[in-house]
Amino acid sequence: MVKTLQGMPKSGKPWKVDSKPFNSLDTELKEGLPKKTYEQKMKEKAEIKEARDYEKQLKDEKSEVKRKRREKSEAKKKLKEKNQFKSSSFQVIKDPKKMKKMNKKLRQQVSSLPPDMFYKLMHGKTINY
User: Fold this and answer.
1) How far, in Å, CA of 44 to CA of 38, rounded?
2) Number of other CB atoms surrounding residue 63 within 10 Å
3) Angle at CA 72, nearest 5°, toward 68 and 73?
4) Where, by residue number, does the polypeptide cross the bilayer (predicted)?
């Protein structure tokens, strides 16, 4: 494999070596291998396809489990918010001057809702005027 040296440094180790092109190495390796028949090639191809199908099936099952888990957690989160909203106490503030007197944290907690929206969230029904 080593043909001629391009140069020799002081250490005595060769710096660069002439190398063969990769395609010639590839053909040398292939010459020693036995040829495959058409049936062997088709059998290998079928095995690879089966493995890919099985892998795809496993991925689909995994993604389905993830999707169900995600939906369940979203539903649980919505129910928790709804229950928290129902269990909290409410107070109607008619005078806006009181809002200005409140400190910043309290003002951030206050939320304003129209009466029909409030009734819908509390009772799950719409109100007709």
Assistant:
1) 10
2) 10
3) 120
4) none
Which residue range forms the structural domain that includes residue 120? 90-129
For residue 60, name the pLDDT band (cuts at 50, 70, 90). Answer: very high
What type of residue sits at position 12?
G
Give 17's strand partners: 5
CA dihedral of 97, 100, 101, 105, whole degrees rounded to 10:
140
Confidence check: pLDDT of 19 > 80: no
Q: What are phi and psi of 82, to 5 degrees?
A: -60, -45
Domains: count for the chain: 2
Q: Return d(Cα 112, Cα 118) in angstroms, integer.
A: 9
**Are both 115 and 73 inside the same structural domain?**
no
Give yes or no: residues 45 and 69 share one domain.
Answer: yes
| Mean pLDDT (the chain, rounded) | 81
For residues 72 and 79, the answer to whether their CB atoms sit within 8 Å is: no
pLDDT at 17: 66
SS3 for 115? helix
At position 13, the amino acid (one-letter code) is K
DSSP 35: P
- What per-residue confidence (pLDDT) applies to 129? 54
